[in-house]
Structures are given as C-alpha cells and as structure tokens.
Amino acid sequence: MSRSIGLDDTLTAYVRNANPPEHPVLARCREETDAMGEISRMQISPEQGAFLQLCARLVNARTAVEVGVFTGYSALVTALAMQDMHGGAARLYGCDSSEDYTAPARRYWAEAGVDGLIELRIGDARETLAGLAGEIGGTADMMFVDADKTGYEAYFEAGLDLLRPGGLILFDNVLWNGSVADPAKVAADADTAALKALAETVRDDDRVHSAFTAIGDGILLAVKR
Ligand SMILES: C[S@@+](CC[C@H](N)C(=O)[O-])C[C@H]1O[C@@H](n2cnc3c(N)ncnc32)[C@H](O)[C@@H]1O
C-alpha cells in the first residue's frame, strides 16, 4: 500500500484513524488490491481518498474525469461523494488503458451502487481525453490524474479543455518518493523529469491557481481561472 513520505507507522495510523471511516467496499478494494503484492503501491492511500472525497465536495463535483483507474479505489471514493450530492445526475469518466487492472473496479463499483454513474473508457488516455473534450469540454468540475507520469503535461492541457472555470485538477505522485528533488535522478529517469517539469509548468501557468502539497506521495492541485 502507498503511504505518506516521512510518516512512520505510528503517525500513518494516527492520520488514518483521524479520517472518517472507509466505506466497507473501499476497505475491501484496498485489502484485495494489497493481496496483489508490490503493484498495490499504485493505489492511493485511505487518507488520500478522504482528501479526494472532500475535494469533490468542495467543487460540488457533478461531472468528473479520472485518468488512471487501476482497481477502482480513487474512482469509487469520488463517485460516492458525487452520488451523495447529485444522485443519478452525477457522471464520472474513468480512463485506463488496461482491461485487466480495471476488471475488479467494475465489481466494486457495482457492489457500492455507483456503477450507473461511472463510465469506464479503455484506451490510451490521450485519445480518450481528446474524445471527451467534444462531449463535456468546459463543463467538468474535477479531474484526478494518476497514470503514466510522462503523460502528465498532456493531461494538464487536456484538463484545461475539459474543466469549467473554477474546476479542479489534481495530480498524484508529484514527489515521486523524493526523486524529484534529486538532480541525478531527474537527469536519469524520464518519469522523474516529467514530474519536475510538470510542477514548474503548473506553478508558472497563469491559467490556473495552484498548490503543491506533500500529501501522500505529493498531490499537486490547480484550479482553472
Ligand atoms: C497508479 S495506477 C492508478 C491508481 C488508482 N488511481 C487507484 O487509486 O487505485 C495507474 C493506472 O494508469 C493506467 N495507465 C497507465 N498509462 C496509461 C495511459 N497512457 N492511458 C490510460 N491509462 C494508463 C494503468 O493501467 C494503471 O491502471
């Protein structure tokens, strides 16, 4: 399971307990994904989930996009808040390139009763987002990006097309376990370089207001002006 940089086990447990309890289907999704082994580190942590859910409420998310679904935890977190606020009028577009990773996601969404509001689109997210721009361009309230790191700059541009003014885009893993602050790692690794470039792009882009936070492995937030 992923965890926040710099927090030991005691503090991680404290943070988890200080958040609202996980929905039982979320807890099962996390436990069963943990059983997949090392790859389970791709899943967001429960405390990141609580943060994401609150963000969905803050922007009153009715239309949202997720890039990087995996076994469905972050989409379920978001969809639960959206359903609570907007019922059947909510719509979450999930983008992932893998049928295999996302197969369990569909099951968890159905068990939690939010499958009717999540539309999963399988394919390269660059193409999926380009298609979505023609359908929901300028109307999305929120977008969560948690996929291939070298695609983040393209997802930022796509997000600006999809979001309404005041809409929120969030990028996960922007600390990349601390690598982004190590020039040798930035020089040696394309993912690390892409994340560092993204942070600078978003910080300097006057189309957004932004905040770079150290939640989990780092979450970069930007609100479209
Ligand atoms: C870090 S995981 C997402 C974790 C998920 N947000 C969660 O909380 O469980 C990254 C996902 O991005 C997907 N992915 C990677 N590259 C992609 C691309 N170019 N287009 C669409 N999905 C991609 C992978 O298949 C994988 O499921």
Q: In words, what does this structure look like?
A:
This protein is an alpha/beta fold. The protein has a single domain (9-224), classed as Rossmann fold, CATH 3.40.50. It is built from 9 helices and 7 strands, in the order αααβαβαβαβαβααββ. The protein has helices spanning 9-18, 24-34, 46-58, 73-86, 99-112, 125-136, 152-162, 183-188, 190-204; strands at 63-67, 91-96, 118-122, 140-145, 163-172, 208-213, 219-224. It has a 7-stranded mixed β-sheet, sandwiched between helices. Strand 1, helix 4 and strand 2 form a beta-alpha-beta unit. Helix 3 runs parallel beside helix 4 and helix 6 runs parallel beside helix 7. The chain is globular and about 45 Å long. The model has no long low-confidence stretch (mean pLDDT 96). It binds S-adenosylmethionine. S-adenosylmethionine binds at residues 42-44, 68-71, 73-74, 95-98, 101, 124-125, 146-148, 151. The site of S-adenosylmethionine has 20 residues, from helix 4 and strand 2.
Keyword list:
single chain; 225 residues; alpha/beta; Rossmann fold; 47% helix; binds S-adenosylmethionine
Q: Could you provide a short overview of the structure?
A:
This protein is α/β, with parallel strands linked by helices.
Number of strands: 7
Order of helices and strands: HHHEHEHEHEHEHHEE
- Mean pLDDT score, rounded? 96
Give the proportion of residues in helices.
40-55%
Strand order of the largest sheet: 3-2-1-4-5-7-6
Largest sheet: 7 strands, mixed
By CATH, the superfamily comes out as Vaccinia Virus protein VP39
Task: State the CATH class.
Answer: Alpha Beta
Total DSSP helices = 9
The helix/strand class is alpha/beta
Low-confidence stretches: none
Shape: globular
CATH topology: Rossmann fold
| Hetero ligands | S-adenosylmethionine
What's the CATH architecture? 3-Layer(aba) Sandwich
Euclidean distance between termini CA atoms = 35 Å
